[in-house]
Design a protein that fits this description.
9 helices; binds acetoacetyl-coenzyme A; alpha/beta; 7 strands
């Protein structure tokens, strides 16, 4: 029986690459998304991957979404918490809404999603939870107190839940991408990207979404059971933790 993988933010950017790579590796994949219907329908038509729409910052929406995915595809074996947003601003200009949106979506979603799959994983004595954190959770980033806090929080969550799942065949790991060529990074000012970010990347280029997807497939595998609580960095040498 193929294993079932659920990827949040799974129809665009890094998440789309993760969904596709997991499908190629033999998983039954569900890709959850929230905002962009057009991109999701295009993704579904191109890949044949099932798409589901809900807001990962809502616990109730996650409970209903997971229930639907499990009814359609079967119990979730692999959860990839990838959905994330930015609302960049220096703290002295940051509005409370910019703080709460980022914390609730990026970090709140780890509770909302993992809580809704963890009991099943414990009962079946197998699970893989992979959290897509960020280089900016490891090193901090100018203009991202909200985002850096959420991404650092994801690493703490990963390390704690790894300890709880270890005896039950559930591994929990974080992947920390650097700057990847996605809409999120391209939305930055070109000047900031070229003068502040690119010069700091020793390999001299942005990463590709597929380079993150291969980290996820590695951690999701049945024979990756020894690896738990780890943080896998993939950032072209920009920050060596
Ligand atoms: N380090 C140090 N100083 C910086 C800086 C940095 N990274 N970025 C800007 N500054 C300086 C500027 O040079 C400027 O100095 P001067 O006034 O002396 O010229 C001063 O700070 C103000 O800069 P801005 O005019 O840009 O400030 P702003 O308030 O208008 O904009 C900002 C702030 C929107 C946060 C902008 O700086 C920015 O976009 N920064 C990049 C944030 C970033 O890296 N986001 C990542 C998005 S991708 C992502 O998050 C994915 C992932 O996981 C990696």
């Amino acid at each position: 029986m193929p294993r079932v993988a659920l990827v949040t933010g799974g129809t665009r950017g890094i998440g789309a690459a993760i969904s596709k790579t997991l499908k190629t590796a033999g998983y039954k994949v569900a890709a959850a998304y929230h905002g962009n219907d057009e991109a999701a329908q295009k993704f579904k038509a191109e890949t044949g991957i099932a798409v589901y729409k809900w807001d990962v910052s809502s616990f109730e929406a996650c409970a209903a979404g997971v229930k639907q995915v499990e009814a359609d595809l079967g119990p979730v074996d692999v959860l990839v918490n990838n959905a994330g947003i930015t609302r960049d601003a220096q703290l002295h200009r940051m509005k409370p809404e910019q703080w709460t949106a980022v914390i609730n979506t990026n970090l709140g979603s780890l509770f909302n999603m993992s809580r809704n799959v963890i009991e099943g994983m414990r009962a079946r004595k197998f699970g893989r939870i992979i959290n897509i954190s960020s280089i900016n959770g490891q090193k901090g980033q100018f203009g991202q107190t909200n985002y850096s806090a959420s991404k650092a929080g994801e690493i703490g969550f990963t390390k704690a839940l790894a300890q709880e799942g270890a005896r039950l065949g559930i591994t929990v790991n974080a992947v920390c991408p650097g700057y990847i060529a996605t809409e999120m990074v391209k939305a930055m000012s070109q000047e900031v990207l070229e003068t502040k970010v690119l010069p700091q990347i020793p390999i001299g280029r942005l990463g590709e979404p597929e380079e993150i997807a291969r980290c996820v497939v590695f951690l999701a595998a049945d024979d990756a059971g020894l690896i738990t609580g780890s943080t896998l960095t993939a950032n072209g040498g920009q920050y060596i933790a």
